[in-house]
Design a protein that fits this description.
The chain is an alpha/beta fold. It is built from 14 helices and 16 strands. It is globular, with a radius of gyration of 23 Å.
Length: 494
């Protein structure tokens, strides 16, 4: 692969002091590459650096680190689709999808996503760069992005760290980016993973209502919906229950008549039980009859691999954290992963109500951290002594006035071109596939927009793309979505 350093331009703003003065406010580094994607050779450039966040008065509030990939072997690049990519957390860098999913490089890991040495990166033959340009954006205090403050001032946390504040300043930043890179004519997409699902739901409305930047697609990867997640409501326990079935099936903990079936044959059964039997039972609380309570507990045991007695002791409300500790307790004493339950952990003791740690997350940090630090400095040629924040200090995060679901509905209603794609892994216990389906229904309670929404599931976890088979499948699904939703289908009207 040929790499040429083409351009290095640094702009320094006078009388501005950064939280870390080693981060310049406005920097561009461009490098060139050739690769093969989807069976075809392409050439492209990577533009990486920092771009300021400006307030309403034109003052610099922060600088965001980004990497922008664009093809160089095509004409009329201003018309080419662009994907604006975010991860979640809140407080997570864009590293995950950048060097493991949609970008032109991917991790050196085994086919199931486990770390191998030597660490590093390799070409991603499944990247969607063949059909769309991609920019990976790191919000404030993630990656190398930092707030910029005057001397003796404190960081304005209310400006950055909240559902609404986050979407507002990112929309402003994207307006500048799209203008600088001549992409106003292009079909536009925003993609977000985990908390990024909430981020892009809110951001879609911000972009269309305040920036007048209309979108062709919103892609949510393993979306976190804070109207449901961690609420402790009956809906939360019931909606997430089918995930228990998936995880138990993977670890061969279901009864033989279920275990011998394919995963996709048994999940509809579990979903039907969760919605039509478990949810009404949980809604009754302490007023449920003993016969019904026992029948429900028996079915829960049947579909989860957890003993009926344990479920009854939890009053039918089986916490996910307990499930991660309990499922294999009597089999081999290991725990299962939160974000991807294919991973196994070893706790100090087999007793307890929750795992000591998340085995999948430490595995991922094991692979990603060396790779992104090496890649950024040695391949992309962005040189800095600043620490790359895989997870940065953004808390407390303001979740108040979260109207992201309704705002995405408004964005769809106001823009007949706008399509939705949701991608989830069946073994994700943090933001479950069934909760993602639930969110899709709640975005549009009328059902009038459901023909513009699609769901794709994968036999992996939160980062489904770490499994080689799903890396290819998920990118193909995304590629098909972009090609279909970017076609000229006539006037945008009802």
């Amino acid at each position: 692969m040929k790499k040429n350093l083409l351009l290095l331009v640094v702009f320094f703003t006078t009388n501005i002091f950064s939280q870390d003065k080693r981060v310049p406010a406005d920097t561009t580094v461009v490098t060139s590459y050739a690769t093969t994607i989807n069976g075809k050779k392409i050439t492209y450039k990577a533009q990486t650096g920092t771009q300021p966040v400006f307030d309403a008065n034109g003052n610099i509030k922060a600088t965001l680190f980004y990497t922008y990939y664009y093809r160089t072997d095509i004409t009329r690049s201003e018309n080419r689709p662009i994907i604006m990519s975010f991860n979640g957390g809140p407080g997570s860098a864009s590293v995950w999808m950048h060097i493991a999913y949609t970008g032109p490089k991917t991790l050196k890991i085994d086919d199931e996503g486990n770390p191998i040495q030597p660490y590093g990166i390799k070409d991603n033959p499944y990247s969607v760069l063949d059909v769309a340009d991609i920019v990976f954006i790191n919000p404030v205090n993630t990656g190398y992005s930092r707030p910029i403050i005057k001397k003796d001032e404190k960081v304005d946390k209310k400006y950055f760290f909240g559902v609404n504040a986050d979407a507002k300043y990112l929309a402003d930043w994207l307006n500048t980016f799209i203008t600088r890179n001549n992409k106003w004519k292009a079909p536009k997409y925003i993609i977000g993973e985990s908390y990024g699902g909430t981020r892009v739901m809110q951001l879609a409305y911000e972009l269309q209502s305040r920036q007048w930047m209309y979108l062709n697609g919103v892609i949510m990867v393993s979306p976190a919906d804070y109207k449901l997640i961690r609420t402790g409501a009956s809906e939360d326990y019931a909606i997430n229950f089918p995930y228990y079935t998936a995880a138990a099936w993977y670890h061969k903990q279901l009864p033989s008549e279920l275990q011998q079936k394919d995963l996709l044959d048994i999940l509809p059964e579990s979903e039907d039980f969760a919605i039509n039997k478990l949810l009404p039972a949980l809604a009754k609380g302490g007023y449920i009859g003993e016969t019904e309570k026992n029948n429900i507990a028996e079915k829960m045991a049947y579909y989860s691999g957890v003993k009926k007695e344990v479920i009854l002791k939890h009053n039918l409300e089986l916490p996910k954290a307990y499930f991660w500790k309990e499922l294999l307790r009597d089999k081999n004493g290991k725990t299962i992963g939160r974000l991807d339950s294919r991973y196994l952990g070893l706790d100090r003791t087999e007793t307890g109500t929750r795992p000591d740690y998340s085995p999948e997350l430490v595995s991922w940090l094991h692979s990603f951290t060396p790779a992104i630090n090496y890649y950024t400095q040695n391949v992309l040629k962005f040189k800095t002594d600043v620490k790359y924040y895989m997870f940065g200090p953004v808390h407390p995060w303001d979740f108040s006035n979260d109207n992201s679901r309704e705002n995405l509905r408004k964005a769809m209603a106001q823009n007949p071109y706008l399509q939705i794609l949701v991608q989830s892994g069946y073994y994700d216990g943090a933001t479950t596939y069934s909760a993602a389906k639930y969110t899709m229904g709640k975005i549009d309670p009328s059902g009038k927009l459901k023909n513009r929404m699609s769901f794709k599931g994968y036999r992996s976890g939160h980062m489904m793309y770490l499994r080689k088979e799903d890396l290819e499948k998920a990118n193909q699904d995304l590629r098909a979505f972009i090609l279909k939703s970017s076609k000229n289908v006539g006037a945008a009207k009802y």
